[in-house]
Amino acid sequence: MKKMDYQNVKGTQDYLPEAEVIRRKVRRTLEDVFIQYGCKPLETPILNYTELLASKYAGGAEILEEMYTLTDRGERDLALRYDLTIPFAKVAAMNPTITLPFKRYEIGKVFRDGPIKAGRYREFTQCDVDIVGVDSQVAEAELMVMALDAFGKLDMNVTIQYNNRKLLMGMLEVLGVEPDKLNQTVLILDKLEKIGVKAVLAELDDLQISDSTISAIEQFLIEKNYGSFDYFESYSNKNSNVKEGLAEVRELASYLDFLDVREQCIFNPFLARGLEIYTGTIYEIFLTDQSITSSIGSGGRYDNAIGGLLGTDESISTVGISFGLDVIYAAMMVSGQNVNQTSNIDYYIIPLGTEKEALRVAAGLRQKGYTVELEMSRRKLGKLLEKANKEGVRNVIVIGEEEIRKRQYKVRNMITGEEELWEM
């Protein structure tokens, strides 16, 4: 018989218990923070109509190239969700009676047939928060502070870079980029930190941007006077997008200053977030030590998505943030972060030919709310105690014939070595 090929599909992986315990702790930490910030839970289907995910209000041409598509028995065109954002926008569009502002969180699997690297797979878990119905930049400020809180609880030092799509698009318009080349130019600028200024300018040249515009963009890229936002003042009188975007980044910066998190939240005028869905503020979260250079979270404002799905031109204020569970876990492993591996087992029961009695003791402890593992193998006692030590089990109970006869057993604390005698 031919051996079955049982390897994982490329871009997917298994997480054995040692890894999954850490991932679950990260997930619970994020979820606890989301709840602390007043977010309500939501779950959306993994399977969606292709038309929804390919909407012009969705991710844009680049992400659609990575979308997994399929058909069902009814020959309907379906796709696996590539993020949690558009499915959420669909929920908001389908439920117009939702009380606004509406803050939701969702943690779930998404799928992209894209490049694979550290922390980036084709099946991965996103942890999202979105807010509908808030025009003010207070929504962005709350999400950014929430991110700092979450990573603080995970003992991870992060920096948030932020920008504004109106400001960026307006600047490109002022510098002479033609309307039909704006989105492609943004995608090229999105590569700036990865490939550098010269390579960006070369790609702009390939896009057939005029020499004068490329020269103006080059000057923009090497300019250093962005800290006070004054650099953009002269341009705001020439372009409405620059004017609106500048007002928004100033409002956001005022919140960040007031909350004393300005050092962790850095304005980056070249941050592009290539997805076409974004209409205002955008941000990406990076490890401060750059042990992983790709972002471990990102998001922004996308005011056109819900109205677009409803088939109207109405702008419905929506802003979100997304954390990548897999890349956060990868970052923890790269940094060698000391994750507490203490077992969550309260009592580990080892029967020595006394399985029935051990089952009854385990049942009694579980009824009291304790977490109990019952050993079911017939390995030697010494080996089982080694296992308990290795896994960080707190309490061990050994039940043999003598314990049955005396109707008593000892509970050994594996940390202190102390023993207590309990009645059976």
Question: Radius of gyration in whole Å, from Cα?
Answer: 27 Å
Mind describing the biggest β-sheet? 8 strands, mixed
Mean pLDDT: 90
Strand content: 15-25%
How far is the first residue's CA from the last residue's CA?
53 Å
Number of helices: 16
Unreliable runs, pLDDT <50, ≥5 residues?
none
Describe the structure.
By secondary structure, this protein is α+β, with helices and mostly antiparallel strands. It has 16 helices and 16 strands. It has helices spanning 17-36, 50-53, 61-64, 85-94, 138-153, 165-174, 182-189, 192-206, 211-222, 233-236, 240-258, 305-309, 325-335, 355-367, 381-390, 401-406, and strands spanning 40-41, 47-49, 69-71, 77-80, 102-111, 123-132, 158-164, 265-267, 281-287, 297-301, 318-324, 347-351, 372-374, 395-399, 408-413, 419-423. It has an eight-stranded mixed sheet, sandwiched between helices. The protein has a five-stranded mixed sheet with strand order 13-12-14-15-16, with helices on both faces. A three-stranded antiparallel sheet has the order 2-4-3. It is elongated. The mean pLDDT is 90.
